[in-house]
Sequence to fold (268 residues):
Amino acid sequence: MKSAIDVIDESLSSVSRLRQTLAKGRAKQVSGHEEQSNVKATCLSWFNAHRSTLASLHEHVVFQAIDRSFQDLLEFSGRATSRSKYKSELKHLKSNLVRLRSHVAIAPSRESETERECRPPEFAKLIADKGMQSILLRRWDETEKCMNAGAYLAATVLMGSLLEALLLARINALNDKSTVFQSKCAPTNPKTGKAKPLQEWTLNSYIDVAHDLKWIRRAGRDVGVVLRDYRNFIHPEKEFTHGVTVDESDARIFWAIFAQLSEQIVSA
Fold:
């Protein structure tokens, strides 16, 4: 029998394939029989095969959000729905599937084990400057304080800023940065075709390049992307528009895996 993580991975793969397929279309609306059938097949795969395997998770708020997304997509497929609406819903669905997988991955861990995993890495391995080490340690401590105070959105935003700082530090530690700028994931200037300077990179670019260069594993990349998306909810309008909040369960999953991700970056 497949494990919960295997099933979630299969769902992630099918959602990713659907996103890629729909992204190729040029019409503003998805109304063709083939595209709509693709959407229906992806949704029915969830309801008829994957959902029952995850019965123990049915009460989890993230699982319920995933269920609603598949229901909405199934409804979309019965009428002409804008491509942009599909894009937004599928992006949200992928993020929630990653969150659910992370929850399953760390659920068996005891709290004391999770706390040990959340200790800061040895920043000195990566960063020689004492002042920057001090800043990162202070921000790590501040993130923990936010977690303990129930300020979960603030903690998530701080994790995102720490992640970006560590990835930039990893790049700056290289004597030869050519592999970074030659990575297939490096953002390029559309006019020149050359990689953009680091000051123009986004967190998403840092995450993709770090994974491409094998500094972080796939699970770390996926959580990094979720942190990037949730960091944007610092803007109240985005939180209101998407109807998403960061609760304690989300934040503790992010925190445990972010700590492991930080160790990967420092030790790469």
